[in-house]
Amino acid sequence: MSHLPAANRYANPALYRRCGHSGLQLPQLSLGLWHNFGDVDDPANRRALILRAFDLGITHFDLANNYGPPPGSAETNFGRVLHADLAAYRDELIISSKAGYDMWPGPYGEWGSRKYVLASLDQSLKRLQLDYVDIFYSHRPDPLTPLEETMGALAHAVRSGKALYVGLSNYNPEQTARAAKILRELGTPCLIHQPKYHMFERTAEHGLLDVLTQEGIGCIPFCPLAQGLLTNRYLGGIPADSRAAHDPRFLKPEHITEAKVGQIRELDTLAQKRGQSLAQMALAWVLRHPTVTTALIGASKVSQIEDNLGALKNLQFSPEELATIERILAA
Ligand SMILES: NC(=O)c1ccc[n+]([C@@H]2O[C@H](COP(=O)([O-])OP(=O)(O)OC[C@H]3O[C@@H](n4cnc5c(N)ncnc54)[C@H](OP(=O)(O)O)[C@@H]3O)[C@@H](O)[C@H]2O)c1
Protein backbone atom coordinates (compact mmCIF):
# COMPACT_ATOMS: atom_id res chain seq x y z
CA MET A 1 0.00 0.00 0.00
CA SER A 2 1.32 3.43 -0.92
CA HIS A 3 2.35 5.68 1.95
CA LEU A 4 0.26 8.72 2.87
CA PRO A 5 2.83 11.33 3.96
CA ALA A 6 2.24 13.40 7.09
CA ALA A 7 0.16 16.48 6.28
CA ASN A 8 2.31 18.62 8.60
CA ARG A 9 5.68 17.65 7.11
CA TYR A 10 6.47 21.26 6.18
CA ALA A 11 5.22 22.74 9.46
CA ASN A 12 8.68 24.09 10.26
CA PRO A 13 9.92 26.33 7.42
CA ALA A 14 13.02 27.09 9.52
CA LEU A 15 14.17 23.54 8.81
CA TYR A 16 15.45 24.63 5.39
CA ARG A 17 18.61 26.53 4.43
CA ARG A 18 19.59 27.89 1.05
CA CYS A 19 22.42 25.93 -0.55
CA GLY A 20 25.25 28.35 -1.29
CA HIS A 21 24.24 31.01 -3.80
CA SER A 22 21.75 28.70 -5.52
CA GLY A 23 17.97 28.78 -5.53
CA LEU A 24 17.79 25.37 -3.85
CA GLN A 25 16.87 24.95 -0.20
CA LEU A 26 17.82 21.82 1.69
CA PRO A 27 16.69 20.54 5.09
CA GLN A 28 19.33 21.12 7.77
CA LEU A 29 19.49 17.35 8.21
CA SER A 30 19.69 15.08 5.18
CA LEU A 31 19.55 11.27 5.22
CA GLY A 32 22.39 9.25 3.71
CA LEU A 33 21.96 5.65 2.56
CA TRP A 34 25.56 4.45 2.80
CA HIS A 35 24.73 1.98 5.60
CA ASN A 36 21.49 0.18 6.51
CA PHE A 37 19.92 0.23 3.01
CA GLY A 38 21.69 -2.66 1.29
CA ASP A 39 20.24 -6.06 0.42
CA VAL A 40 21.75 -7.31 3.70
CA ASP A 41 19.50 -4.95 5.69
CA ASP A 42 15.89 -5.42 6.84
CA PRO A 43 13.50 -4.19 4.10
CA ALA A 44 10.84 -3.06 6.60
CA ASN A 45 13.39 -0.95 8.48
CA ARG A 46 14.78 0.52 5.23
CA ARG A 47 11.29 1.62 4.24
CA ALA A 48 10.47 2.94 7.73
CA LEU A 49 13.63 5.10 7.81
CA ILE A 50 12.91 6.69 4.43
CA LEU A 51 9.23 7.34 5.09
CA ARG A 52 9.73 8.70 8.63
CA ALA A 53 12.42 11.06 7.38
CA PHE A 54 10.12 12.35 4.64
CA ASP A 55 7.24 12.75 7.12
CA LEU A 56 9.52 14.89 9.28
CA GLY A 57 10.35 17.26 6.42
CA ILE A 58 13.66 15.66 5.40
CA THR A 59 13.44 16.09 1.65
CA HIS A 60 17.02 15.18 0.78
CA PHE A 61 18.26 11.60 0.39
CA ASP A 62 21.89 10.96 -0.51
CA LEU A 63 23.10 7.90 -2.42
CA ALA A 64 26.07 6.76 -4.48
CA ASN A 65 26.52 4.08 -7.12
CA ASN A 66 28.47 1.86 -4.70
CA TYR A 67 26.26 1.98 -1.57
CA GLY A 68 25.06 -1.41 -0.38
CA PRO A 69 26.26 -4.05 0.19
CA PRO A 70 26.28 -5.33 -2.46
CA PRO A 71 27.25 -2.16 -4.38
CA GLY A 72 24.24 -0.67 -6.14
CA SER A 73 21.67 -2.27 -3.84
CA ALA A 74 21.00 0.91 -1.80
CA GLU A 75 19.94 2.67 -5.01
CA THR A 76 17.78 -0.29 -6.05
CA ASN A 77 16.15 -0.49 -2.62
CA PHE A 78 15.58 3.27 -2.41
CA GLY A 79 14.10 3.19 -5.93
CA ARG A 80 11.63 0.50 -4.87
CA VAL A 81 10.39 2.50 -1.87
CA LEU A 82 10.23 5.64 -3.98
CA HIS A 83 8.15 3.89 -6.60
CA ALA A 84 5.85 2.06 -4.21
CA ASP A 85 5.32 4.81 -1.64
CA LEU A 86 6.44 8.21 -2.83
CA ALA A 87 5.95 8.19 -6.60
CA ALA A 88 3.47 11.06 -6.35
CA TYR A 89 6.01 13.13 -4.38
CA ARG A 90 9.01 13.13 -6.72
CA ASP A 91 8.90 16.91 -7.00
CA GLU A 92 9.24 17.22 -3.20
CA LEU A 93 12.45 15.20 -3.14
CA ILE A 94 16.11 15.99 -3.67
CA ILE A 95 17.85 12.73 -4.57
CA SER A 96 21.58 12.63 -5.12
CA SER A 97 23.99 10.04 -6.43
CA LYS A 98 27.71 9.88 -7.12
CA ALA A 99 30.32 8.20 -9.25
CA GLY A 100 34.01 7.87 -8.42
CA TYR A 101 34.73 4.72 -6.44
CA ASP A 102 35.21 1.18 -7.70
CA MET A 103 31.96 -0.05 -9.25
CA TRP A 104 32.61 -2.58 -12.02
CA PRO A 105 35.65 -4.46 -13.36
CA GLY A 106 38.02 -3.10 -15.98
CA PRO A 107 39.48 0.33 -16.70
CA TYR A 108 36.08 2.10 -17.03
CA GLY A 109 34.63 1.11 -13.64
CA GLU A 110 35.98 3.83 -11.31
CA TRP A 111 37.59 7.29 -10.97
CA GLY A 112 36.75 10.26 -13.23
CA SER A 113 36.82 9.52 -16.96
CA ARG A 114 33.87 10.73 -19.01
CA LYS A 115 33.29 7.10 -20.01
CA TYR A 116 32.89 5.92 -16.40
CA VAL A 117 31.07 8.93 -14.95
CA LEU A 118 28.31 9.01 -17.56
CA ALA A 119 27.89 5.22 -17.76
CA SER A 120 27.63 5.11 -13.98
CA LEU A 121 24.93 7.80 -13.97
CA ASP A 122 22.89 5.77 -16.46
CA GLN A 123 23.24 2.70 -14.25
CA SER A 124 22.21 4.68 -11.16
CA LEU A 125 19.11 6.02 -12.91
CA LYS A 126 18.09 2.49 -13.89
CA ARG A 127 18.50 1.22 -10.33
CA LEU A 128 16.65 4.21 -8.90
CA GLN A 129 13.95 3.92 -11.60
CA LEU A 130 14.32 7.66 -12.23
CA ASP A 131 14.72 9.90 -15.29
CA TYR A 132 17.02 12.26 -13.44
CA VAL A 133 18.79 12.79 -10.12
CA ASP A 134 18.67 16.19 -8.45
CA ILE A 135 22.37 16.29 -7.60
CA PHE A 136 25.11 14.29 -9.30
CA TYR A 137 28.56 14.23 -7.70
CA SER A 138 32.08 13.40 -8.63
CA HIS A 139 32.71 11.21 -5.57
CA ARG A 140 36.48 11.74 -5.46
CA PRO A 141 39.13 13.57 -7.50
CA ASP A 142 40.97 11.47 -10.07
CA PRO A 143 44.70 12.26 -10.14
CA LEU A 144 45.11 10.78 -13.64
CA THR A 145 42.15 12.31 -15.51
CA PRO A 146 42.15 15.99 -16.52
CA LEU A 147 39.77 17.89 -14.26
CA GLU A 148 38.24 19.40 -17.41
CA GLU A 149 37.15 15.91 -18.51
CA THR A 150 35.46 14.99 -15.21
CA MET A 151 33.79 18.39 -14.90
CA GLY A 152 32.77 18.20 -18.56
CA ALA A 153 31.04 14.89 -17.82
CA LEU A 154 29.14 16.46 -14.88
CA ALA A 155 28.10 19.42 -17.04
CA HIS A 156 26.98 17.01 -19.77
CA ALA A 157 24.82 15.15 -17.24
CA VAL A 158 22.97 18.41 -16.56
CA ARG A 159 22.69 19.39 -20.23
CA SER A 160 21.28 15.98 -21.09
CA GLY A 161 18.59 16.33 -18.40
CA LYS A 162 19.89 13.45 -16.27
CA ALA A 163 20.87 15.71 -13.35
CA LEU A 164 19.66 19.12 -12.18
CA TYR A 165 22.75 20.18 -10.22
CA VAL A 166 26.31 18.97 -9.76
CA GLY A 167 28.51 18.53 -6.71
CA LEU A 168 32.00 17.54 -5.60
CA SER A 169 33.04 15.22 -2.82
CA ASN A 170 36.43 14.69 -1.18
CA TYR A 171 38.11 17.40 -3.34
CA ASN A 172 40.71 19.50 -1.49
CA PRO A 173 40.55 23.33 -1.48
CA GLU A 174 42.75 23.79 -4.57
CA GLN A 175 40.96 21.10 -6.57
CA THR A 176 37.61 22.58 -5.50
CA ALA A 177 38.54 26.10 -6.62
CA ARG A 178 39.77 24.83 -10.01
CA ALA A 179 36.74 22.59 -10.51
CA ALA A 180 34.36 25.42 -9.55
CA LYS A 181 35.97 27.68 -12.18
CA ILE A 182 35.67 25.04 -14.91
CA LEU A 183 32.06 24.29 -14.00
CA ARG A 184 31.18 28.01 -14.03
CA GLU A 185 32.73 28.37 -17.49
CA LEU A 186 30.67 25.39 -18.64
CA GLY A 187 27.50 27.11 -17.38
CA THR A 188 26.89 24.50 -14.67
CA PRO A 189 27.84 26.09 -11.35
CA CYS A 190 28.90 23.76 -8.57
CA LEU A 191 25.97 23.53 -6.14
CA ILE A 192 27.50 21.72 -3.20
CA HIS A 193 30.55 20.05 -1.72
CA GLN A 194 30.46 16.91 0.42
CA PRO A 195 33.47 16.64 2.76
CA LYS A 196 33.99 14.52 5.86
CA TYR A 197 33.58 16.92 8.78
CA HIS A 198 32.91 16.28 12.45
CA MET A 199 34.47 17.12 15.83
CA PHE A 200 37.19 14.49 15.40
CA GLU A 201 37.90 15.35 11.73
CA ARG A 202 38.66 19.03 11.15
CA THR A 203 40.47 19.03 7.77
CA ALA A 204 37.61 20.99 6.15
CA GLU A 205 38.47 23.94 8.41
CA HIS A 206 41.89 24.27 6.78
CA GLY A 207 40.89 26.08 3.59
CA LEU A 208 37.94 24.13 2.19
CA LEU A 209 35.16 25.95 4.05
CA ASP A 210 36.77 29.28 3.02
CA VAL A 211 36.81 28.28 -0.65
CA LEU A 212 33.17 27.20 -0.45
CA THR A 213 32.19 30.50 1.17
CA GLN A 214 34.08 32.51 -1.49
CA GLU A 215 32.59 30.48 -4.34
CA GLY A 216 29.03 30.45 -2.98
CA ILE A 217 29.01 26.65 -2.86
CA GLY A 218 26.93 24.91 -0.18
CA CYS A 219 28.45 22.33 2.15
CA ILE A 220 26.98 19.00 3.24
CA PRO A 221 29.36 17.41 5.75
CA PHE A 222 29.23 13.62 5.82
CA CYS A 223 29.59 11.46 8.93
CA PRO A 224 28.79 14.44 11.23
CA LEU A 225 28.37 11.91 14.07
CA ALA A 226 31.68 10.17 13.28
CA GLN A 227 29.68 7.08 12.26
CA GLY A 228 28.03 6.96 15.68
CA LEU A 229 31.02 7.77 17.89
CA LEU A 230 29.60 11.23 18.62
CA THR A 231 26.42 9.78 20.15
CA ASN A 232 25.61 7.85 23.31
CA ARG A 233 26.10 4.58 21.34
CA TYR A 234 29.52 3.59 22.69
CA LEU A 235 29.47 5.12 26.20
CA GLY A 236 29.10 1.71 27.82
CA GLY A 237 30.90 -0.63 25.41
CA ILE A 238 30.03 -1.79 21.90
CA PRO A 239 26.35 -2.76 21.60
CA ALA A 240 25.60 -5.80 19.42
CA ASP A 241 23.29 -3.81 17.12
CA SER A 242 25.80 -0.98 16.53
CA ARG A 243 27.74 -0.35 13.32
CA ALA A 244 31.07 -1.15 15.00
CA ALA A 245 29.74 -4.58 16.02
CA HIS A 246 27.79 -5.74 12.97
CA ASP A 247 29.36 -3.87 10.04
CA PRO A 248 32.91 -2.92 10.98
CA ARG A 249 34.08 -2.21 7.40
CA PHE A 250 34.73 1.44 8.22
CA LEU A 251 34.16 1.89 11.97
CA LYS A 252 36.43 -0.67 13.52
CA PRO A 253 36.08 -1.69 17.18
CA GLU A 254 39.81 -1.03 17.70
CA HIS A 255 39.21 2.67 16.90
CA ILE A 256 36.94 2.94 19.94
CA THR A 257 39.77 3.34 22.42
CA GLU A 258 39.52 4.18 26.13
CA ALA A 259 40.96 7.63 25.37
CA LYS A 260 38.30 8.26 22.71
CA VAL A 261 35.50 7.07 24.99
CA GLY A 262 36.88 9.42 27.68
CA GLN A 263 36.52 12.37 25.27
CA ILE A 264 33.05 11.22 24.24
CA ARG A 265 31.98 11.07 27.90
CA GLU A 266 33.17 14.64 28.50
CA LEU A 267 31.38 15.84 25.37
CA ASP A 268 28.27 14.03 26.55
CA THR A 269 28.41 15.88 29.87
CA LEU A 270 28.61 19.21 28.05
CA ALA A 271 25.70 18.21 25.80
CA GLN A 272 23.59 17.42 28.85
CA LYS A 273 24.36 20.87 30.28
CA ARG A 274 23.07 22.33 27.01
CA GLY A 275 19.90 20.24 27.34
CA GLN A 276 20.85 18.13 24.31
CA SER A 277 21.84 14.58 23.51
CA LEU A 278 25.46 14.22 22.37
CA ALA A 279 24.24 13.50 18.82
CA GLN A 280 22.21 16.72 18.85
CA MET A 281 25.20 18.75 20.07
CA ALA A 282 27.51 17.20 17.45
CA LEU A 283 25.05 18.12 14.69
CA ALA A 284 24.54 21.65 16.03
CA TRP A 285 28.33 22.04 16.12
CA VAL A 286 28.63 21.21 12.40
CA LEU A 287 25.66 23.41 11.53
CA ARG A 288 27.13 26.39 13.43
CA HIS A 289 29.21 27.26 10.35
CA PRO A 290 27.19 29.53 8.01
CA THR A 291 28.55 27.77 4.90
CA VAL A 292 27.22 24.42 6.08
CA THR A 293 23.81 23.95 4.49
CA THR A 294 22.86 20.57 5.90
CA ALA A 295 24.41 17.77 7.96
CA LEU A 296 24.35 14.40 6.19
CA ILE A 297 23.40 11.85 8.82
CA GLY A 298 22.99 8.11 8.72
CA ALA A 299 20.56 6.16 10.88
CA SER A 300 19.83 2.54 11.75
CA LYS A 301 16.64 3.34 13.70
CA VAL A 302 13.74 5.70 13.16
CA SER A 303 14.19 7.00 16.73
CA GLN A 304 17.70 8.24 15.79
CA ILE A 305 16.30 10.47 13.04
CA GLU A 306 13.75 11.86 15.49
CA ASP A 307 16.42 12.49 18.13
CA ASN A 308 18.72 14.14 15.61
CA LEU A 309 16.11 16.63 14.43
CA GLY A 310 15.96 17.87 18.03
CA ALA A 311 19.39 19.40 17.40
CA LEU A 312 17.71 22.29 15.60
CA LYS A 313 16.16 23.51 18.86
CA ASN A 314 19.58 24.79 20.01
CA LEU A 315 22.15 25.64 17.35
CA GLN A 316 23.85 28.41 19.35
CA PHE A 317 27.14 27.90 21.19
CA SER A 318 28.58 30.31 23.76
CA PRO A 319 32.31 31.09 23.45
CA GLU A 320 32.80 29.13 26.70
CA GLU A 321 31.08 26.04 25.28
CA LEU A 322 33.18 26.20 22.12
CA ALA A 323 36.33 26.57 24.23
CA THR A 324 35.31 23.56 26.35
CA ILE A 325 34.85 21.47 23.20
CA GLU A 326 38.31 22.51 21.95
CA ARG A 327 39.85 21.60 25.30
CA ILE A 328 38.20 18.16 25.29
CA LEU A 329 39.23 17.47 21.68
CA ALA A 330 42.83 18.57 22.32
CA ALA A 331 43.22 16.20 25.29
N1 LIG B 1 31.05 11.38 0.02
C1 LIG B 1 31.63 10.41 0.70
O1 LIG B 1 32.76 9.99 0.40
C2 LIG B 1 30.89 9.80 1.85
C3 LIG B 1 31.54 8.91 2.72
C4 LIG B 1 30.82 8.40 3.80
C5 LIG B 1 29.49 8.78 4.00
N2 LIG B 1 28.89 9.63 3.12
C6 LIG B 1 27.48 10.02 3.28
O2 LIG B 1 27.24 10.41 4.62
C7 LIG B 1 26.11 9.69 5.12
C8 LIG B 1 26.18 9.54 6.60
O3 LIG B 1 27.32 8.77 6.98
P1 LIG B 1 27.25 8.01 8.37
O4 LIG B 1 26.13 7.05 8.37
O5 LIG B 1 28.61 7.52 8.69
O6 LIG B 1 26.85 9.26 9.33
P2 LIG B 1 26.84 9.55 10.85
O7 LIG B 1 25.61 10.37 11.04
O8 LIG B 1 28.14 10.09 11.29
O9 LIG B 1 26.65 8.14 11.58
C9 LIG B 1 25.43 7.45 11.51
C10 LIG B 1 25.36 6.39 12.59
O10 LIG B 1 25.37 7.02 13.88
C11 LIG B 1 24.46 6.35 14.74
N3 LIG B 1 23.43 7.33 15.13
C12 LIG B 1 22.81 8.25 14.35
N4 LIG B 1 21.98 9.00 15.08
C13 LIG B 1 22.06 8.55 16.35
C14 LIG B 1 21.44 8.94 17.56
N5 LIG B 1 20.58 9.95 17.61
N6 LIG B 1 21.76 8.26 18.69
C15 LIG B 1 22.64 7.23 18.66
N7 LIG B 1 23.27 6.82 17.54
C16 LIG B 1 22.98 7.49 16.39
C17 LIG B 1 23.91 5.18 13.98
O11 LIG B 1 24.80 4.11 14.24
P3 LIG B 1 24.31 2.61 14.48
O12 LIG B 1 24.21 2.05 13.10
O13 LIG B 1 25.42 2.02 15.28
O14 LIG B 1 22.98 2.67 15.18
C18 LIG B 1 24.06 5.62 12.55
O15 LIG B 1 24.12 4.54 11.64
C19 LIG B 1 26.17 8.38 4.33
O16 LIG B 1 24.95 7.67 4.35
C20 LIG B 1 26.51 8.88 2.96
O17 LIG B 1 25.35 9.40 2.34
C21 LIG B 1 29.57 10.15 2.07
What does this 3D model show about the protein?
It is a single chain. With 331 residues, the protein is α/β, with parallel strands linked by helices. It has a single domain, classed as TIM Barrel (Alpha-Beta Barrel). Helix content is 38%, strand content 13%. The protein is built from eleven helices and ten strands. The protein has helices at 43-55, 73-85, 114-128, 147-159, 173-185, 208-215, 243-246, 258-273, 278-287, 302-309, 319-330; strands at 16-18, 25-27, 29-32, 60-62, 94-99, 133-138, 163-169, 190-194, 218-219, 295-297. Strands 9-8-7-6-5-4-3-10 form an eight-stranded parallel sheet. A two-stranded antiparallel sheet has the order 1-2. Strand 7, helix 5 (173-185) and strand 8 form a beta-alpha-beta unit. Helix 2 (73-85) crosses helix 3 (114-128), helix 3 runs parallel beside helix 4 and helix 5 (173-185) runs parallel beside helix 6. The radius of gyration is 19 Å and the shape is globular. The mean pLDDT is 97. NADP nicotinamide-adenine-dinucleotide phosphate is lined by residues 32-35, 62, 139, 169-170, 194, 222-228, 231-233, 242-243, 279, 296-300, 304, 307-308.
For this structure, the CATH topology is TIM Barrel
- The CATH level-2 architecture is identified as Alpha-Beta Barrel
Q: State the end-to-end CA separation.
A: 53 Å
Give the DSSP E fraction (strand runs of 2 or more residues): 5-15%
Distinct small-molecule ligands in the complex: NADP nicotinamide-adenine-dinucleotide phosphate
- Strand order across the biggest sheet? 9-8-7-6-5-4-3-10
- Average residue-wise pLDDT: 97
The helix count comes to 11
Provide the CATH top-level class. Alpha Beta
Q: Low-confidence segments, ≥5 residues, pLDDT <50?
A: none
Largest sheet: 8 strands, parallel
